[in-house]
């Protein structure tokens, strides 16, 4: 699948400072990085730039702070990245400012400076032009390798890209290629598995998948919005009330679609969302009062696994239940094992799905494990991602390189 944006491969970076937007929004525990998957995913771009003699200024968000918050500092991330690279990674005291500019100005080839959490600056999420200008002052060119944030029009993903020569990192490029290939030209049958809590978060994706997929399998708490729309009792289950009407519309669309929308036929219930709660297997989907659905049941899991096994392409986003609790992990585990064991092309997006695969020891058996949940869904929906659209077109860069080469050849010819 073609990628029409300028690639970091084509950037002239030797002796230049490069501002790299990475997605280091990683889980922390006891002041350390708990899961470094997203850091490792950016290593190829970072190492390529260092090898070519660039000085790197890295910027990322971490969590959702409301202003500076020591608990969400990038300090543990800088330490972990330094360990992976085998070099010291310096942490700047802020995102922008005179001291940050001084530190960036002192970088030499191969040096790495990490800025503080971009969301410590209120102008980040509002795409403040002044913040974008101050970020651009730190570097000579820009690389976006943060696919997980590419669907956000923020200062570090879109604003600064309009002020510097802007390229796609290796991870972002690969993400777009892999996902658009599934969206535009999948090996059939295309089986889509959607879980999670809210229909409202995935309504656009579901509408799109009903157009392009052969089967859409639904699990997680979002299935209760569909049951509620059908007048089926949901007990104390988590119901996205705003999504009930949307679920009803999806059901009506599914009736007119060639795609098959599949809902659970049995459930695993608990009294409450707790590891020690009373558990009940329900052969059906009418949830009694005082109980809540917390996982798909064994018949549903077996049916979903069979559909995945018969597919040519599988896209999975969202767990089937409260998999973090052992009593309610079987459905998600069955789907994860089926996806990992499938002969199909397999793509998984979303932090919870990735966490489930990692927990079950199956992450390395997926063809493409996307670093972006929301971004992967929006790309699959056919939406334009602001962080991608802001980059230079590849044809412009190739044309400029051809023109420079022709000029050099002419100069050599005239010298001779």
Question: What keyword list fits this structure?
Answer:
15% strand, alpha/beta, six-stranded parallel beta sheet, Rossmann fold
Structure description:
This protein has 416 residues and is of the alpha/beta class. It has two domains: 8-173 and 394-415, Phosphoglycerate kinase, N-terminal domain (Rossmann fold), CATH 3.40.50; 186-381, Rossmann fold, CATH 3.40.50. The protein has 16 helices and 17 strands. The chain has a six-stranded parallel β-sheet with strand order 5-6-4-1-7-8, sandwiched between helices. The longest helix has 22 residues, at 394-415.
Briefly say what this structure is.
Helices cover 39% and strands 15% of the residues.
In the CATH scheme, the class of the largest domain would be Alpha Beta
The total strand number stands at 17
Shape: elongated
How many domains? The number is 2
Give the CATH superfamily of the largest domain: Phosphoglycerate kinase, N-terminal domain
Alpha-carbon Rg, integer: 24 Å
Q: Please, how many helices?
A: 16
pLDDT average, as an integer? 93
């Amino acid at each position: 699948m073609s990628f029409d944006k300028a690639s970091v491969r084509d950037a002239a970076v030797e002796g230049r400072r490069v501002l790299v937007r990475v997605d280091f929004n990683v889980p922390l525990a006891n002041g350390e990085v708990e899961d470094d998957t997203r850091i490792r995913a950016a290593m190829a771009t970072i190492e390529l730039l260092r090898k070519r003699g660039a000085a790197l200024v890295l910027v990322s968000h971490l969590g959702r702070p409301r202003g500076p918050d020591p608990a969400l500092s990038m300090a543990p991330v800088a330490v972990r990245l330094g360990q992976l690279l085998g070099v010291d990674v310096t942490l700047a005291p802020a995102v922008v400012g005179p001291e940050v500019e001084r530190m960036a100005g002192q970088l030499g080839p191969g040096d790495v400076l990490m800025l503080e959490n971009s969301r410590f600056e209120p102008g980040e999420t509002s795409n403040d032009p002044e913040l974008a200008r101050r970020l651009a002052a730190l570097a000579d060119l820009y690389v976006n390798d943060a696919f997980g944030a590419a669907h956000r029009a923020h200062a570090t993903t879109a604003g600064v890209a309009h002020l510097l020569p802007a390229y796609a990192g290796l991870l972002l490029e690969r993400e777009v290629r892999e996902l658009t290939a599934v969206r535009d030209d999948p090996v059939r049958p295309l089986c889509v598995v959607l879980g999670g809590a809210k229909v409202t978060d995935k309504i656009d994706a579901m509408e799109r998948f009903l157009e392009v997929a052969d089967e859409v399998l639904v699990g997680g708490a979002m299935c209760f919005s569909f049951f509620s729309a059908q007048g089926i009792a949901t007990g104390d289950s988590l119901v996205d009330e705003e999504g009930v009407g949307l679920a009803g519309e999806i059901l009506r669309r599914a009736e007119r679609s060639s795609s098959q929308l599949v809902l659970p036929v049995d459930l695993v219930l608990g009294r409450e969302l707790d590891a020690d709660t009373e558990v009940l297997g329900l052969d059906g989907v009418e949830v009694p009062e005082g109980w809540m659905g917390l996982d798909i049941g064994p018949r549903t899991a077996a049916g979903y696994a069979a559909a995945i096994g018969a597919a040519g392409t599988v896209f999975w986003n969202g767990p089937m239940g409260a998999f973090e609790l052992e009593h309610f992990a079987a459905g998600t585990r069955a789907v994860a094992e089926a996806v990992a064991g499938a002969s199909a092309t397999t793509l998984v997006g979303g932090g919870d799905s990735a966490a489930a695969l990692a927990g079950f020891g199956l992450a390395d058996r997926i063809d493409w494990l996307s670093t972006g949940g929301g971004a992967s869904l929006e790309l699959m929906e056919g939406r334009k991602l602001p962080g991608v659209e802001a980059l230079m077109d590849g044809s412009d860069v190739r044309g400029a390189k051809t023109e420079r080469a022709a000029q050099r050849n002419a100069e050599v010819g005239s010298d001779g």
